[in-house]
## 1
Amino acid sequence: MLKAKLSSERFAHSLAVMETALSLAENYAVDQKKVWLAALLHDYAKDLSDSVLLKLARENNLLSCQVEKYQPNLLHGPVGAFLCKRDLQIKDQEILQAIYYHTTGHQDMTLLDKIVFLADLLEPERSYPWVDELRQICAANLDKGLFFVFEQILQYLLHTKTLIHPLTIKARNQLIYQRLDMK
């Protein structure tokens, strides 16, 4: 069913994210079945057009801020979670949450959220300039990898003068709060 819904490239990416997520999850006490399903379905709505993403988001109260109105591609997470619940009858909130937030992160990310978010960026076909450094960091510590990603994303968005989703800022700040609380 997923293979029929996605382009062949997107389906291959989804399989690679699933394998990467399962690899990341090996060292953590997290439900492997949830990792498998959330990672496999994370881009369920990715091949929808911006207009369809916006329409579904508006009809189902999924818009959380103005940024999503101007960058509808960010909605493929929330819309994907909505469609997985509606069309695939997935009711597990942890799985739906990991799909929902895999584009932005959020301030209370669970281990499953972190694994899916990072696996999307780490899968073997990714080739951006800092991916090897990210792979090394994530092999040792997921939170450090997550912080590194947020720093890279924010620097890129500032450099390109692109809108920044408030959830990404909150997610980054939460990691700093956790560090400060440890001192």
## 2
Amino acid sequence: MENKVLGLHHITAIADNAKRNHAFYTTTLGLRLVKKTVNFDDPGTYHFYYGNESGTPGTILTFFPWEGIGKGTPGAGMATHIGYSVPEGSFDFWKQRFDENRIAYEETAIFGEQLLSFSDPDGLQLSLIIPKTADSRVPWTTEAVPAGVATKGFHNATLTLHRADPTAKVLTDLLGYRQTGQEGNRYRFVNENIDTANYIDIIEDPEAGHGRNAAGTNHHIAFRVKDDTVQMALREKIAAAGLNITPKIDRDYFYSLYFREPGGVLFEIATDNPGFTRDESLEQLGTALKLPKQYEPARTKIEAVLPGL
């Protein structure tokens, strides 16, 4: 089982204002800031990682908050929706919390699961979902968001595509997913190697406009593997299928491969190792600015540029 894809590892999105983004995810939604670092390619921009206590793969939503970038447009060729698992009976709490914070929401159901859909301050489309089967993951909790209602990590990610079939083939033939349902133009795929963060939905919409990456849109989704040995075996399989995939890249807290699937969504294969406690203790995660080693000599200059939180 461990030599296979194990559902979602993380999802990376774009925000505009770092302080607003940090407040929304840590205070309103009650997630833990697991790691505060900078963009590898733009050290003047933060890279935030929000998740549960230890940043378990399948709970991590990361952001590049580029100040002043403006709003993007979700559309075809993107991951357009993120679903978080929450406990049964928690919707009344979240509705009250959203009302208090003037956040619009809509209650619906997809594939027999209750959803509370809303957007973050930049327009990123999110849902709280009560899964059909109980989610045993232990959430990060705060005084305002206790365990009985807190988010437990990802339930699913939704891709919007002009055509479902080419991407479905990548999910089933390369990444080990199985189609498990269809409602109208929405197709659901499950990864049965793990029981959480293991659903991908595809919305097939030939008329959808192309998305534009900026604040409020997802940049890529990452699938989880145990380690870089498994990762490199999967790389061979993906390359043999004719997809252009990068070499292994060290992202400090995991190793990454990237390829763009036929529908246009950027996919990543990310490892569990070495994890977020590589350079901070579990208790101290997210409390200090951690820099990639090549940027340490410029720490004073970088800290002066990054906005206050």
## 3
Amino acid sequence: MLTKETGKLKLAAMGDREVVITREFKASRKLVYAAFTNPDLVKRWLAGPEDWAMTVCEIDLQVGGSYRYEWKKASTGETMGMGGVYKEIISDERIVATEKFDMAWYPGGATVTTSFREGSGVTTAETRVLYDSKEACEMVLRSPMDVGMEASYARLDTLLETKFA
């Protein structure tokens, strides 16, 4: 089983098609869930690596609703977009959604399940990504995805400290 630790982010490959990403945040589950689901808040932290910015964040948080994210790299003008459909939502606890990138940096799509657990003032966000194929999973594991995710989660740490002030 491949595992990586990047900053506070832990990533583990589970079987041929699944990746499990865990990250702890010093905030209540309610605040962390809000930061993951409110478009104005998501846009403030989910920017990816340095030099990237989120330019579009649309969230229709309901079963059957969709989401759309777009980013732009300031230095090159390069863009990236993705979206999906919500399959299950349990407020403050769990979100299940599909995921597909505009430019196929990995083949097919994925199903993403994000769960939020709170204990002793710390919320653990666990994201399980089930790819359509073994090939897609392997491509993602070879990418620097964990670096971009951790950069965004570090921004989220700062945002959570303000309680969205």
## 4
Amino acid sequence: MGAWWVALLATLGALFVGEVMGQAPCELCWYQRIAMFPLAWILGVAAFRGTGGYNWYALPLAAAGAGIAAFHSLIYFEILPETIHRCGAGPSCTDDAMVLFGVAPLPLLSLAAFVIIIALLALSSRKTP
């Protein structure tokens, strides 16, 4: 249930940033959305049905999203050069638009959400006999 709340909050946050704040997602943000949005549905259905086995679907998505978010964070913080990945015709993966409310870098928030989801899924799989 906790992983679903994190995925739902992250999905609604991404929609808020894009649709309400009018900020277009960069290419790496789109890939992270591709991993996060289905997690909100998969984990939501699993939470309300009370069925197990969803980790087979959710963990690979969360791990892929975490990998992309980690890569995006390394580029954002200039640990990796931006030339390693060009964001194409959309917004830049590293400019000031990647900061929410002036303090929270979006790639880092995304990475935190994926890591929390992975941790909660790992904990729930340990409880399941």
